Amino acid sequence: MPRNVKSLNGAGFSVSVLVSVGRHPLTARARRADHDARAVEMALSLNDASVQLIHAGDNDTASEEALRGYLGMGVSGVKRIEQASNADVVPALTNILRFAAPQLVLTGTRAETGEGSGLVPYLLAESLGWTVVSGLAEIESIEQGVATVLQALPRGKRRRLQVRLPAIATVDSSAPAARQSAFGPARRGELTDCAYASVIDELQTQWHIQPARKRPKRLKIVKSASARDRFKAAAAKADSGGGQLLSDVTPEQGAEAIFTLLKEEGVLR
Amino acid sequence: MDGKCSAQGWVYSALAEVCRRGPAAKATRDEVSTMLNTLLPILIFTALALAAIGAVRRMRLWRQGRPSPVNLLKGLAAMPRRYLVDLHHVVGRDKMISNTHVATAGGFVAAAVLMILVHGLGIANPLLGGLLLLASTSMFVGSLFVARRRLNPPARLSKGPWMRLPKSLMAFSLGVFLVTLPTVGLLPDGLLEGSGSWLLALVLAGVVAWGLGEMFFGMTWGGPMKHAFAGALHLAFHRRAERFSTKKGGGGRSTGLKALNLNDEAAPLGVEKPADFTWNQLLGFDACVQCGRCEAVCPAFAAGQPLNPKKLIQDMVVGMAGGSDAGYAGSPHPSQGIGGKPVGEHAGSPHGPIVALEGKTLVDADTLWSCTTCRACVEECPMMIEHVDAIVDMRRHLTLERGKTPNKGAEVLDNLIATDNPGGFDPGSRLNWAADLNLPLMADIKQVDVLLWLGDGAFDMRNQRTLRALIKVLRAAEVDFAVLGAEERDSGDVARRLGDEATFQSLAKRNIATLAQYRFLQIVTCDPHSFHVLGNEYGELGGHYEVRHHSTFIAELYDAGRLTFAPWKGGRVTYHDPCYLGRYNGEYEAPRNVLKALGIEVKEMERSGSRSRCCGGGGGAPITDIPGKQRIPDMRMNDIKESGAELVAVGCPQCAAMLEGVVDASAEVRDIAELAADALVERPAGDASGGSRRPAATTMTAEEVIV
Amino acid sequence: MSEIIRRDPRREWIARNRLHPEYANVLADMGGGGGGAVSEWQGPNGAVRKNPRAIGFIGPNGVKRIDRSGLQQGGQSAATTTAARDSRRMVTIDQPAFLVAVVPDMTGGRLSTHDKDLLGLARRLADADAERPGAVVAILFGEHKEAALGEAGIDQVVHLDDNSYAGFAPEACLAALSGVEREMAPRFWLLPDSPLGGSELGRRLAVRLGERPATQVWQVEADAHSETSWRCTARGAAGSVDITRHLPRVVLALAECAEPVSETRHAAQPVALPQPLPDVLGRLKDMGEVAVDPASVSLAEAEFILSAGNGVKDWEGYHRAAQVLGAAKGASRVAVDDGFMARDRQVGASGTWVSARVYVAVGISGAIQHLQGIQSCDKVVTINLDERCDMVKRADLAVIGDAGEILAALVARVERYREQQQENRDAA
């Protein structure tokens, strides 16, 4: 849905979207990152805003394919700052943002590759001295240097915020889904390369990185004096298997059983 | 209807008038003849000249389209045969109309040629005159039948100008007949004498002029007779020349979609505006006779989804010439809730978009997304128009350029890109269902008789039952087979029908590369969509395979004596022809043979074989999910119910899923493979060597592969 | 009964003498007045006494049976746990060697389970060296209703209860935390990595302090080689890798990063910051929450779905139930095809694949396509008329009966529960 965006002095409202190369959770193929694509979608749904996409990262075929995924959404080009794969992209991004000086920067909450700490927007905001706001669900209006936005809270709730611009806002999966990426515009769109010296992230080299292990399921710890109770709790199967079947019950009894289950699962609030 | 009666009445009264006159004014006879003899050539040649101008104009409309390589001379030479054999093969399904058309059209062509000779060039040869009389009589008789058909026309026929066509045909044939009578000297003396003779002559000339106007002028200026002109050229320059039979026989089927050249960045991705069609596609649209056979068989139309193939083709004609669809006189595109989309609100131009970015232009996007690509319209079309090609061309633009695949389309395409299957499942889990079956993998054995293509049904719990059954049958027949396992990808069928040619080609090329690593004699699959794509559409990208549907393969195994079935003990059974097996690949017999081998006597549905009604599962229709009045599978289940069957045999995972999705279904849905697997009995020991039921059937061995 | 404990030396003497003829009766009386002998009691000097003869019951064939499943002793084990709670050790750390600062989310004014896990982690860090224990200091913003701060392992509480921290005020909170850093210089900062809670504040804090935080930490282990003598394992790359690294000063930890404190109680001593905090000029302004219909939450995200199928006749009742339960609405294909529900609400192989924690299917028989779509749901509840249908086989709880009546009863039950909760809240 297009939003009303009135910039202060009639000039086009400029939005930069920081996009990264995503990674499909099942096949690990490079793709447009889900949150970043939603950020692009949000930027494109702003009426009359000039949208610029910025990517900092390494420059191989797989990542080019992924970046073209963003172009396929109908953006004419992506500014690509080539960086070494172990580089810290914050200096490069700070530099280009300071130069481009957009009123609003949108980006995903965290990257799908690398550390994925979600720190980049905060670091950028700190170094540029801009406001940062997280979990945007919608931009309601932008007027006179103040954006009114809806922030997504858990369970579909929303909070209305007013943000003084320029600002960096992150977008997560509560934002509207990204539009389809079409082949034609993706093929036509341009990747403009800009250079910026890579600043190697030294700390990361000391880390030990391995594929995620499955986290152990937490056991219910029974603080019982009796050895039998503790043994029983430790040995009990998590699920007893077959479900419970209540037939020939009054509606009230049935409702009570369901209610108990809902309460146990903590979905009633 | 009134018009027709009065027209007939008028003809009879004119005849009566002619007879009543008798020997009266001899003096004026010659003058009247002379007048007719001068008037007729003028009329004829004016009409021909106008027709020629019209033809040039019409051709310029077609030439707006993109180039398409066609051998013009060869096409023209093949045209009569295409008309007489292939077209009449379609028209001949309705004998009445077929004969009517032969009489009318044959009579007209002969009469037109002879008339030019006799009246136009003045070759007053009595033999030619006699032939002309015969031809016009034949045409007149034909036009009487045309008129009769228009008395109470079925809903699928367009009205409007088409209602005057029988009158025009009569006017032409009768007029020509009457003006020819003097030529052969059959005219009773003194008929054209007397005070009324001038009047009569003028009336005759007028009738002939009307006939000429409709038949020659209207033919190229957009009247109903346009179909003859455009149709003849369409047959000659058809985009799929291989559809037509040749003297050597064969031919007759060309159903694979044509690939887009994605390497050429200048070429449009699909069709955005009418001028993006190739010129012979535009010509094809112009050939439409608006008979509405397509409308009558279209499952989307019947379900009340906003698609009427006939209207769609007429929309393309409107777009090609520019203007609005106000002149359209057939049933409109249906629309949910109300009777149909109002006619006259859509307009377009050759270089304007077909589907609007906002608002309305020529066609609404949901019209294009309603199609199930079942090809029933193409199969029925007497003018050999390729509706499905056109629809997919326009879908390609919507998907590849605009990124507007509706509903779950975008998600499915994203899944295909990221995981090689439409459901977004882990590609490594493609063989999880068969963990206990110990299936041989191509990667391990490299070389095999039969490569079993599982299709995306491998992720679907319902289809896994079919696959298990098929594997049981293959093992019982001791077939040397293997599967690709996790190396298999979606065939690209859904991506292609949804217009995503890029994803289709990407999948296809990777599949072809995978298949190129292995040696096998044939591919067997239980998915007709994969069957069609692998067999008919991979060729253009460099993959040529011998592909068999599992029903064909089971039938062959049975004929070769490698399977023995226990007699059928269940109830009545009907068979639902999958579109991609039947109409796309002409395989109607093998599944029925398997059922026969199982001891089942098939209770045919009213619509079966080449006229089978789609289950609603093709062309990505369940994904784009355009709402209608009712669901297509519900209608099909109703067909099944009417056949009285308690069980419907299917041969396609889509059909099984769609038909099983019908609530309160009257019949059980089973795949042919499941029926075969259930009926399997141990072969008697002595028969193990394989007493072939049909000597011609070949059994293949691994040795043959090595050779 | 009177509160005064009266001793009867004679009965105690009999109870000690197993050979006394009245032994069994006296034991039964002492055991709580119920019929039959007690098997276990506390003797006069505190030792647990057991009567092996009192265990078990006489089976149908006259043979004595002993049931060790514990069914016979339910009442007594409850009594023991009460005793255990009372026995939690009180720990007071007067001279902490260092501080571990924790900023809990305090969702709804109470410590969430995530907060408690995090405090458990903080305790581990603080208590690692028994000689020189650290103290856990919790920084709380705004009003709260939590009574058991000490039980959760908090030694000191910095409670900033000021209007400027009400609602969503990350800038003010950040300024306050900077103040804490200045005044108290904690060795570690722990925040929950929870969406829009500690996740945001923690990142702001880390950036402000110039520390590189570890995010999405789910495991912390002692490591002698590390500068901080701890190492942590954190999720990275959208949860697809584990990063093992030294534990930094600022840690954003996931839920279940450690066991919550259960064996000790702590002082939860309020402390005040010596210096008042400066006012911050906020560039973010909270305009308050916006009501959103839970039914519009996208199905794929929803954690609680009430799904309707062919068996639903009373659609108004269904919609009302979804609203009262606060559940996202789902539908079977049939309900969608029949036009009762929108297409984007369809659950199943041809609709949305859902991953709800609780999926309640009302009047859905469970076509295979539908069951595929709910494969990854934790708990499936069904209300159905046909007890042989596939959905009942899949369900963890199946209630057979009229959907409308049961839903109405459920709505009534939940409303009653809500009222009670409201009363409790008002009372608190």
Automatic annotation (TrEMBL), chain A:
InterPro entries in UniProt: ETF_a/b_N, ETF_b, Rossmann-like_a/b/a_fold
GO MF entries: electron transfer activity
Keyword Disulfide bond: no
Keywords: Electron transport, Transport
Annotated ranges, domain Electron transfer flavoprotein alpha/beta-subunit N-terminal: 21-202
Similarity field: Belongs to the ETF beta-subunit/FixA family.
Protein name per Swiss-Prot or TrEMBL: Electron transfer flavoprotein alpha/beta-subunit N-terminal domain-containing protein
Automatic annotation (TrEMBL), chain C:
Molecular function, one GO term: electron transfer activity
The keyword Zinc is assigned to this record: no
Organism: Halovibrio variabilis
Domain spans labelled Electron transfer flavoprotein alpha/beta-subunit N-terminal: 100-291
Superkingdom to which the source organism belongs: Bacteria
Family statement: Belongs to the ETF alpha-subunit/FixB family.
Protein name: Electron transfer flavoprotein subunit alpha
UniProt-listed InterPro entries: DHS-like_NAD/FAD-binding_dom (IPR029035), ETF_a/b_N (IPR014730), ETF_a/FixB (IPR001308), ETF_asu_C (IPR014731), Rossmann-like_a/b/a_fold (IPR014729)
Keywords assigned by UniProt, alphabetized: Electron transport, Transport
